[in-house]
Design brief:
elongated; four-stranded parallel β-sheet; DNA-binding; homodimer; six-stranded parallel β-sheet
DNA sequence: CTCAGGGTTGTTAGCGTTAACAAAGAAGTG
DNA sequence: CACTTCTTTGTTAACGCTAACAACCCTGAG
């Protein structure tokens, strides 16, 4: 449409001519410069309105050296956690007047993260949020001497950039303490992949709670966050007679565990109690509804933008670390021994 | 870091001086212009390498009037469908050399869509993909006289822009025919919100299959895609004695239905068969594993970019409509009467 | 030997905006 | 009333790149 229209879009000079002022005055009006006579201002605004003028942000970015665009690097935005975090980021960024450009990685190795950051830097983003839940990603970030202000989400201990994350340790501890408080002798654990900082944090919290209570610490079963890996862990657990309580490192794997237990005739919570992690929207409707630890992904996303914007606008380079607490969500998958 | 460094980034002129050529020659090398002596080319490339020069894409965009950025407007990217679609879009766009800027809407009304499109147009995107599964969004799109090439995903019948979508009608038909083929007298339906085109398509496919088989068409139960609404529909269905087969319009609601059935002692698939829609990663591990209709969201996202890029680069304004077929995924939630 | 024609490079002029400075008028001060 | 100061506006010069054109060199045909 309009390919033969010929009328190019109006530019600032057109508005200026229409309003009988210089283009600089138009610029001043648009940028809320205080020293413009109100009569002139209205005349300019009318001209803008009449011509349907819209300022060219690319030209503006060239001269101001600010694109008002933030970059986001994330791993597999198909997963609930990253998707929710990115959603929070996007909402907060837009509210703060920034555009959001996204790179979603398939695998997170150092090269991948480096490429993504370069790519965004090329585009001229003013700042970057890296959702880096894996150790490799966090390290890649730590190594990179990047010229763009950056914030890591779930970035673990990496010291170079500010970090916003959920307190995984406390989450693991809460889950475990809940199960112990119900009278379980010990708590088994289906953990996430070892490269993930979140997985490590949950393991550590679980272990600490057991040790503090002076209980035996069983060997954790390995999972990869997928329902299938939970299912396989569940089959192993079902065959062990002494298992009465399991803390599963995420809700999806917990679903797999529940499925395996159902197949093997292991009743939850009558014979085994199960606690998950994340509180995905589905977990309330698992059979039975899943007791879990809620992560406020949305808050994490919002906070990361707050920190980044502060970095961009304030400029103070506080080496911040903002920790969002998880919350315990009791449902029906856990019971007294 | 580097705030006191003072050394500004190298620009094309710096490279030119370093290589002993004009900046235009540098530009030609970067743009793969054929008429550059290979010796000169290597000299320029060496200079680029030595100085760590990176071309300023903002300046380039200003003069070429192309930002190589595509905009995506989507509704609630927290949901599995939109998230997967956006993921596919992002991957395909990056592979085609485009950046992706995202706007995620909380509610899709005409004003919201209009704002999002304006917002992206201001930013100077070259093209836009609108994930518009609701009728209101599709209409908003149809009304808008936008100056930027646009493709709608799941956009229904809206005639102004090319559309890429999954064949919802066929999906609904497949689900229903499967249940009928198992000997069920008729099939009940838990539908999605009436504003959603996808919901309508599935209802229509379900109805058509029943009518073609000469069966009674029960009144569909209303849902809003959430597990909770499925749960509520499930409680209603559980109380009806004549229900033996249910087609639920998405997997999340199907989870709620399964939960309600479990609570009421209605066994699946022994007493009632259930079919879902979407094939989310969890559905294989529901109890029982859910028979469902798979939508290839990723393919939809990829196709939408293909169409858009063709529009941008070819320029032919074919009023395309690309339909991705759904596939039937048999699992254990359905059985013969 | 001359001249056309292609390959290769340089020069100049934008793209549409903001920044920096200059200029003119209004207003306040001794 | 002269002089400073503030407000308002305009003029000019970037920002870093590509497009258009000009200029030069080299080759080969007449």
């Amino acid at each position: 449409m309009g390919s033969t229209l010929g009328r190019r879009l109006p530019v600032m000079a057109d508005v200026a001519k229409e309003a009988g002022v210089s283009h600089q005055t138009v610029s001043r009006v648009l940028n809320d410069h205080p020293n413009v006579r109100s009569e002139t201002r209205t005349r300019v605004l009318e001209a803008i309105d009449k011509l349907g003028y819209r300022r060219n942000l690319v030209a503006r970015a060239l001269v101001t050296r600010h694109s008002r665009t933030l970059g986001v690097v994330s791993f597999d935005t198909t997963l609930y956690g990253p998707a929710s975090t990115v959603y929070g980021i996007e909402q907060a960024a837009r509210a703060a007047g920034y555009f959001v450009s996204i790179v979603s990685l398939k695998s997170i190795d150092r090269a991948g993260v480096r490429d993504a950051l370069d790519y965004l830097a090329d585009q001229g983003v003013d700042g970057i949020v890296v959702v880096a839940p894996q150790r490799s990603a966090a390290q890649a970030l730590a190594d990179l001497p990047l010229g763009v202000p950056t914030v890591a989400v779930e970035g673990g201990e990496a010291g170079e950039v500010p970090v916003v994350c959920v307190d995984q340790f406390t989450g693991g501890r809460l889950a475990t303490e809940h199960l112990l408080s119900l009278g379980h002798e010990t708590v088994w654990h289906v953990r996430g992949p070892s490269d993930w900082l979140e997985a490590e944090g949950r393991v550590a919290g679980w272990r600490a709670a057991l040790e503090r209570a002076g209980r035996e610490v069983p060997r954790p079963l390995a999972g990869d966050w997928s329902p299938r890996s939970g299912y396989e862990a569940g089959r192993s657990l079902a065959s062990m007679k002494n298992v009465t309580a399991v803390f599963v490192a995420n809700d999806q794997m917990a679903l797999g565990v529940l499925r395996a237990f159902t197949e093997q005739g292991v009743r939850v919570p009558e014979r085994v109690s199960v606690v998950g992690f994340d509180d995905i929207p589905e977990s309330e409707f698992f059979s039975p509804p899943l007791t879990t630890i809620r992560q406020d992904f949305d808050a994490v996303g919002r906070h990361s933008i707050e920190v980044l914007v502060r970095l961009l606008e304030g400029g103070t380079e506080e080496r911040e670390r903002l920790v969002v607490p998880p919350t315990f969500v009791p449902r029906l998958s856990t019971a007294r021994v």
